[in-house]
Design brief:
The chain is mainly β. The protein is 10% helix and 46% strand. The longest helix has 15 residues.
Amino acid sequence: MPDQSTYSFTDIVATIKHSSYGSYSLQGEGIGDITVSKVTDRSVHDVASDGSIMTSKIAGNNGTVAINAQQTSYLHEWLQGLFNFLWQADTGEWAHIEMTIECPKMNKMFYCNGGAFAKEPDEPFQAQGQRVAWTLLFADIQRIQLTGVH
C-alpha cells in the first residue's frame, strides 16, 4: 500500500508580534495563504579568464513572508494597525517585527525576526471581495525541522 499524507492549512499556526504593539495569532481565519521566501543566493560562481570556476558559499537568512489576507478580515485590520503604529513610531521601532509559523504535521517551524513592512499594500475594490497582499521583509528566517511531532 502506498504512503499517504494529509495536509490542512488549518493545522498551521502563525503568530506575528511587535513588542510595542502586541501580537496576533492566526490559524487560517481571514487568510488566503502565507509564503515564506529566502532572498539570498547561497552560491555564486566566479569564472576566471581560463574558464576555472570559483564557487562562493554565501551566508544570509534574509527573506520575505507574504500574507494574503481577506480585505474584510481582522487580520488585515490588525496588520494595517501595526503598519500605522510603526509609521508614526520612533524609527528604532520599525524593524522589530517577529513571526513564527508552526507546521506540526510537516514537522517544521519558521522563526522570523528583524521584520519590517516592504510597503503599504495595494487595496483592491470591486464587485467581489478580494485579498490584500502584505509583504514583510525579515533580516533572519530560520527553518527549524521538528522531530517526533506528528
